[in-house]
Amino acid sequence: MPDRSTGTSRSNESRFGDRLSALLGRVGLRGRGAVIGIPYFWLLLFFLIPFLIVAKIALSESVIRIPPYAPMFEWSAQELMLNIKLSFRNFSYLFRDDLYFIAYLSSLKIAFFSTLICLLIGYPVAYAMARADASWRASLLMLIILPFWTSFLIRVYAWVVLLRDDGLVTANLNAILLSVGIIDQPLQLLYTPTAAYIGIVYSYLPFMILPLYATLEKMDNTLLEAAADLGCPPWKAFLTITLPLSVPGILAGSLLVFIPATGEFVIPELLGGPDTLMIGKVLWAEFFNNRDWPVASAVAIALLLFLVIPIMLFQNLQGRQAEEGK
Fold first, then answer.
1. Is the whole model's pTM more than 0.70, yes or no?
2. I need a labelling partner for 303 at 20 to 30 A (CA). Which of 19, 30, 98, 250 fits?
């Protein structure tokens, strides 16, 4: 007996596809043009237009009013011409004040070591998931994704409770270290850089595990069986076969952790305390405390260029190497 619900669903999908195709056809996007145009439209809407708005504010002068920056374009009724006022003072200010350079370096250091810790923890987890029985993989994958069902902010606030002096983690850790004589007085974890590392690693660990699992799960296991048949020990097979083949997953996971961790604001603000300096906190302070929107926008653009340009050069290098490999 035919499944009527499935047939209705396919009919609805077909009608939606026809309507979408007709809508794209009205704006001149058909076939290959639609496939290429939709991602470009998405980037235009959610990246380029916001970027241009931020760039416009960064090139404006700070003034005391609402909004707190001077207009870039002014129409002169007497001269009948449009005056354009550009100011690069905000970008030069970033080089004159050491605070921004130190904050950038601190953010890069915290993001780098957080990414390294995520890789050291995430690789064994992803490897174990990929080598687990097929019936268990979906459940293990669900355990990795499950924390995303809770709000990011609530999860960070939960670490505030766990890491305070009488919290579950800090109290038990101090009890163990004091009992074995490693420390003489209780440690304070909350509002220290260590707490910021814990929060970042906990929050971004799934972004490292998921691409690694996707890479390792697709790996051809017959290569390892052939290596074992030829007398290759497991550790050597891992170093010469598994690890090189998992490099794309390592790179993807590292980028997914490193980029958002560099601009992180919530975790260092709630867990790191005043001693944890990151560029996201500086940007927030310029925007909300000092109400210097042009300087805050300049900080945001500098951070974006600081991250995007090396990644683009790296992808370009990878593309050239792939073409040479062909």
1. yes
2. 250
Query: Does residue 26 carry a pLDDT above 70?
Result: no
CA distances from 100 to 106, 174, 277 (A): 10, 36, 10
Q: How big, in percent rounded to 5, are the helix, strand and coil portions of the chain?
A: 75, 5, 20
**Hey, which residues does 69 pair with through a beta bridge?**
62
Q: Which residues pair with 82 in a beta bridge?
A: 75
Tens of pLDDT along 29-50?
Answer: 666 777 777 888 888 888 899 9
3-class DSSP string for 133-179: CHHHHHHHHHHHHHHHHCCHHHHHHHHHHHHCCCCHHHHHHHHHHHH
Distance of CA 42 to CAs 20, 35, 52, Å? 16, 12, 15
Q: Based on the number of CB atoms within 10 Å of its own CB, is 9 exposed (0-12), middle (13-18) or buried (19 or more)?
A: exposed
The distance in angstroms from the start CA to the end CA of the chain is 51
Contact 280, 264 (CB under 8 A): yes
Secondary structure letter of residue 84 according to DSSP: E
Looking at residue 79, the DSSP 8-state letter turns out to be T
Q: What is the pLDDT of residues 172-208, one digit of tens each?
A: 999 999 998 888 888 899 999 999 999 999 999 999 9
